[in-house]
Amino acid sequence: MATVKVKFRASSVPGKEGTLYYHLIHQRSLRWISTDYHVFPDEWNDKKSSIIVSNRNRQAHLQLIQSQIDWEMKQMQRIIRDKDAEGISYTIDDIAKEIQQLPSSQSVFAFFRQQIIKKEQMQCIGTKSNYVSATNRFIEFRGNEDLTFSQMTSEMMEMYQAWLWNRGVGQNTVAFYLRTLRTLYNKAVEAGQAPPNDLFSHVQTANVRTAKRAITVKEIRKIEKLDLPRGFSLDKARDLFLISFYLRGMAFVDMAFLKKTDLKCSMVNYNRRKTHQNLNIEWMKPMQTIIDKYAEQTKDSPYLLPILTGKESSPYTAYRKVEHNTNYNLKKIGKMVGLKIPLTTYVARHTWASVALHMNIPIATISEGMGHNSFKTTQIYLQSLDMATINEANARIIRKIRLSECNEK
Questions:
Q1: Rounded to an integer, what distance in angstroms lies between the CA atom of residue 74 and that of residue 108?
Q2: Least confidently predicted of 55-59, 133-137, 144-148, 369-373
Q3: Over residues 37-55, mean pLDDT
Q4: CB under 8 Å to 279, separation ≥6 — which residues?
Q5: Burial label, 137 (beta-carbon count in 10 A; 0-12, 13-18, 19+)
Q6: CA 334/CA 165 separation, integer angstroms
Q7: Which of 15, 82, 278, 369 is deepest in the core (most CB within 10 A)?
Q8: Does the pTM of the predicted model rise above 0.70?
Q9: Above pLDDT 70, what percent of the chain?
Q10: What does residue 98 show for φ and ψ, rounded to 5 degrees?
């Protein structure tokens, strides 16, 4: 029986990547099948014949290579099994020929990881994170067993949905995984890698209405006037929340990467990282007051706000850490002012939309102001706000009825 293994050949040039190749043996004959995969010596485990992800900056790239290797090894081992099952004598040249004729279609895992790399290169941090989460969850469901796109079926998606539910994953999180998986599958269809197929017609990909995530103008003022020690973490979290609200509910990721050069002629001009839309916001005094407050902290930074310094080896990791700490401190602030919901940076975005809605600003204008891709997105965004208004009205009606009963007595 023939055997095939993946091997690493180090470069003769110090500090340069080595090459991975396949080592094919049959009846004492040997063939080397070259690949275009290159890794550094410390990224290869010779005993396990697998890649070591030792560099976080190369994580997506290395995982993609591992997916390609796993898939190609699986195909080569299938060829060998088929040859042995035929019971007819074959040579190493016969196997090598079939291996070289393997179709170029990508595996599902490899394609998904390729999309992750693209988003990383485009610096679409949030979308890349979504792709990583959805891909890793689907790989977990599959037990690390890769597959082709033609093997994906609507029944498999139903089983995946049930698998997520059985692990206690929330309904909206399940919808997120399935919706992101659908996006990745559609990209494969566009690339000619997958057959057009409605795999997701029998699963829930839309979010259910969630609890209110907006606060009132009165509560915003309470946060503004809250007496906090200047220069400490709570004060900084409050300032980042407020400037997000002032900047039309700007997403934290866009705030983090907002550069000083983006502010010109009393206008902030930036591209949303999620949708790539170009937005312009008039610069106003409350925004400048916050910027001036942190001028000393940001004087050597290319960034406008005190989130990143420009010296981080991994800006994405650094930004997420600041976001996590900011939300931690905002929840404390929310309790201080008596909020009924957890205060987070995302509440600033919802609150801007809520205030605009209650000021009778047209939804189309709100949509444009928030940088949504479509009018429908804004309508979904505002559904929970409308529900909150209805619930408040109901509470007022009940209080009025109870007050009437008391007066009658």
A1: 13
A2: 369-373
A3: 89
A4: 248, 269, 270, 271, 272, 371
A5: buried
A6: 32
A7: 369
A8: no
A9: 89
A10: -70, -35
Most confident of 47-61, 261-275, 348-362: 261-275
Residue 278 in contact with residue 151, Cβ under 8 Å? no
Q: How many CB atoms lie within 10 A of CB 260?
A: 13
Q: What's the chain look like in SS3?
A: CCEEEEEEECCCCCCCCEEEEEEEEECCEEEEEEEEEEECHHHEECCCCEECCCCHHHHHHHHHHHHHHHHHHHHHHHHHHHHHHHCCCCCHHHHHHHHHCCCCCCCHHHHHHHHHHHHHHCCCHHHHHHHHHHHHHHHHHCCCCCCCHHHCCHHHHHHHHHHHHHCCCCHHHHHHHHHHHHHHHHHHHHCCCCCCCCCCCCCCCCCCCCCCCCCCHHHHHHHHHCCCCCCCHHHHHHHHHHHHHHCCCCCHHHHHCCEHHHEECCEEEEECCCCCCEEEEECCHHHHHHHHHCHHHHCCCCECCCCCCCCCCCHHHHHHHHHHHHHHHHHHHHHHCCCCCCCCHHHHHHHHHHHHHHCCCCHHHHHHHHCCCCHHHHHHHHHHHHHHHHHHHHHHHHHHHHHHHHHHC
Question: Do 352 and 245 contact (CB within 8 A), yes or no?
Answer: yes
Residue pLDDT, tens place only, 383-402: 555 555 555 656 665 565 66
Kindly report the average pLDDT of the chain as a whole number: 86
Q: Map tokens 């979010």 to a residue.
A: 207
Summarize pLDDT for 28-38 with one digit per residue, the tens. Answer: 889 888 888 89
Looking at residue 13, its amino acid is V
- At residue 84, the pLDDT reads 87
Give residues with Cβ within 8 angstroms of 246, minimum separation 6. 284, 286, 287
Give the per-residue pLDDT at 146: 86
Using the predicted structure, report yes or no on whether residue 211 has a pLDDT greater than 60.
Answer: no
Q: How far apart are CA 118 and CA 251, in angstroms?
A: 22
